[in-house]
Each structure stands twice: as C-alpha cells, then as structure tokens.
Design a protein that fits this description.
single chain, 162 residues, Trna Endonuclease, Chain: A, domain 1, six-stranded mixed β-sheet, two-stranded antiparallel sheet, 2 helices, 12 strands
C-alpha cells in the first residue's frame, strides 16, 4: 500500500482533488420532437435550445379575482389550447356550451376529446376538489392547478403526458 489515502472511487483525501473519471454519454429522446440525442447529464430533456424554448411555458394560473365561473372555465380552456398548440397539436374548441367535451385535439392521426377543469384547494382537507362530470364523454381531462396543467386519462385516472 502506498502512502496515499484515497477512497475506493475517485477522491484523493490529501490533495483534496477529484481524479478525472471519463463520463459516458447517454442516449435520450427529446421530449418535444422525439429525436434521439446524446447527453452528458442525467437531467437534459431536450435536444436543442429551440426544443427547450418550445417546452418552457411559465406556470399558468387563472386569477382568483375572476369570480365568474364561466369566465374562469373559458380562461382554463384557452390556457390548455395554448399549451397543446405549443406541443404540436391541432386544437378545436367546442362552440356549444352543452357539448360533450371542451376541446378536440389532433396530432399524427390521433384524435382526443379533452375536458378542461379548474380546481380549487379545500383548506379544511388540504385536497384539490374537482367538479363532478361524466368521464365517459372524454378521453383526457386537463386540470389546472396552481403549479400548472396536469392531464389525466379518463379511463384509468392516471396522470399522462400529452
């Protein structure tokens, strides 16, 4: 054994320097365009600055000052439209207030019916309350919470990425 004290991985305790350990590039899929790319980091999600700028949408909120429920619902629908169009979907809004769903979205031949809901935090139970509706009339539920939009599969009620 030499006089050097080192840990088994890479750190020279006396010199207080990390030894060079060559990193290997990882192959990932871009979350926006689906292109495969190589990355050094475990957190990189996009292949380019262009895809990263498309993905960045600041947190969305419907202002609590809007007391009219219909106006809040329309604002939520518009926020969902903006986000889905930014992700490359074609978005069609329902013109009838009595329609079976709020939006119909189309991408790569895949047609989805989307219901948009705005939630409020119940202070007593500390849970988000979602108004009741018929889950059979839509494929996806878009829920606006304070931290942004979440999408749920209406059949499994699991969170999904669109």
């Amino acid at each position: 054994m030499t006089g050097r004290k080192t840990c088994s991985v890479c750190f020279d305790i006396r010199a207080k320097k990390k030894k060079y350990i060559p990193k290997t590039k990882k192959t990932r899929m871009c979350e926006i365009c689906g292109k495969e790319f190589k990355t050094w980091t475990s957190t990189q999600r996009y292949c380019s600055k262009k895809c990263r700028s498309i993905a960045y949408i600041p947190p969305m909120q419907v202002t609590p000052e809007v007391k009219d429920r219909a106006a809040r619902g329309s604002m939520t629908e518009l926020l969902v439209c903006v986000e889905l169009m930014g992700k490359g979907y074609e978005v069609f809004r329902n013109m009838s207030p009595a329609g079976s769903c709020d939006l119909v979205v189309l991408r790569e031949g895949r047609l989805l019916r989307v219901e948009c809901k705005t939630t409020t935090l119940n202070i007593k139970t500390n849970h988000w309350s979602i108004p009741s509706f018929d889950m059979e009339k839509c494929d996806v539920v878009a829920i606006l919470i304070s931290s942004g939009l979440r999408y749920l599969d209406s059949k499994t009620r699991a969170t999904i990425d669109l």
